[in-house]
Each structure stands twice: as C-alpha cells, then as structure tokens.
Write a structure and sequence with these properties.
Layout lengths: L1 E9 L2 H6 L3 H14 L5 E10 L8 H13 L2 E4 L9 H9 L4 E4 L7 H31 L8 H21 L1 H9 L4 H10 L12 H13 L1
Parallel strand pairs: 1-2, 1-3, 3-4
Length: about 220
C-alpha cells in the first residue's frame, strides 16, 4: 500500500481560524488522492501549520518530512509554495533522495519541472514586490493617504464573524447531535455531503470547516 503524508499551511493565525485557504488546499489534495494516488493508498498523518512560507524553520513541516522519510511515504502539498517560497529550500528537498513529494496541482510534474517553476515564481514575487513599492512611493509623493481606516477593517472582521455564526447555526441541528454521539469530524462531513447539503460557497464540507463551526457554536 502506498502511504501519503499531507501538509497544509496558511500564513496567519487569522487564516487558520477562519479557514481561508485551508478549504482550497483540502480540496486540491483530495482530488489528487482520488485521481492520481497509487492504489491502494493510506494517509499516515495530516499536518496543518500556521506559519509564513518565507521562514524555513517550521516545526510541523519538519515533522511531516521526518515522518514521510521514516514511513517511506510521499509528502503531498496542494501548491509548491506551501512547502516554501524560497528556491534554495525547495532545491534542498529535491536533493534529498530519502524524500519523495508531490504537488497536488501539478500531479505529473517531475523534480526538474518543479525546480523551474519555483525559480519563476520567486522571480515573479520579486518583481511584484518592487512594482508595489514603486507604486506606493509614487502615491505617497502625490500626497495620497495610504492604508484602510481601522473602523473599516473592524467592520469587515465583524461581518465575517457574523456570517460564520449564521452558517454554523444553520447546520447546528445536524452537527451538534452527531458530535454528542461521538461522531468524528470526517463522519459529520460524510453525513452532510451525503444529504446534499452545501456550504455557503456552494462547496462540500471538510473536517476543518466542521471544526470551525463547532468552535463558533461553542463560543456563541
């Protein structure tokens, strides 16, 4: 049986709590497993880390890599930048013969192609950074006031929280009873999806989303 270790990463604590970005990564990895994984397969463990991709010192990534090597499993990420935004770090992983990893969005890419992609992505980020700095500098010279008002940001945060509460309450009649009966997050997802229910975005339910709903219901 082919073994897989899954690694997901978001850059901020706010993204980790809201689930922004995690749902897309969950979806991409699941599509990879369903369509491109060697069969039969098994998932050894799933790691979710909240950390910047610019920093290579990430405890959970290191743990995922070590586990993949120990179990002779394939490390799977949704996108290459979930591993790192630094070409040097990606290159070091490619040189590690004890590690095999796959990128869900590029299931057929070999290590050479991934290296080229990492180089191009880093070059593009550098260009965008320089362009943004130049635009901000020009705007400042024109006397433009930069930055969104704090009141506006607070209002957006409250609106997101209210939306999350409404969605959690909408499905509370299913989620809470199942949880009290000892159902796992994945079991609850299976029930919701099998019933034809959809998230507010029209997608399927994932364990991370159900976990956030339960947290929201407990707080409210």
């Amino acid at each position: 049986m082919r073994k897989y270790v899954l690694y997901l990463r978001v850059s901020s604590a706010e993204q980790g709590k809201s689930g922004l970005g995690l749902e897309a990564q969950e979806r991409d990895i699941q599509l990879f497993l369903e369509n491109y994984a060697e069969t039969p397969y098994g998932v050894v463990e799933r790691f979710v880390e909240v950390h910047s991709g610019k920093d290579n010192e990430r405890p959970l990534l290191n743990a995922a890599i070590a586990l993949a090597k120990r179990e002779k499993a394939v490390l799977v990420v949704s996108k290459l930048d979930r591993l790192s935004r630094r070409v040097s770090f990606i290159a070091s992983l490619m040189e590690d013969r004890a590690l095999d990893f796959k990128v869900a969005q590029m299931p057929h890419a070999d290590k050479f192609q991934l290296h080229i992609y990492a180089c191009l992505a880093e070059q593009e980020r550098d260009f965008i950074s320089q362009r943004t700095k130049s635009a901000l500098r020009a705007a400042k010279e024109r006397g433009t006031k930069l930055g969104a008002p704090k009141q506006h940001l607070d209002a957006l945060a409250k609106a997101r929280q209210a939306k999350a509460r409404r969605e959690a309450q909408q499905f509370s009649g299913v989620i809470l009873p199942l949880r009290k009966q000892g159902a796992t997050l994945r079991n609850i997802c299976e029930v919701l999806n099998a019933s034809g229910m959809k998230t507010s975005r029209g997608g399927s339910f994932h364990p991370s989303l159900v976990s956030r709903m339960l947290t929201t219901l407990e707080v409210s």
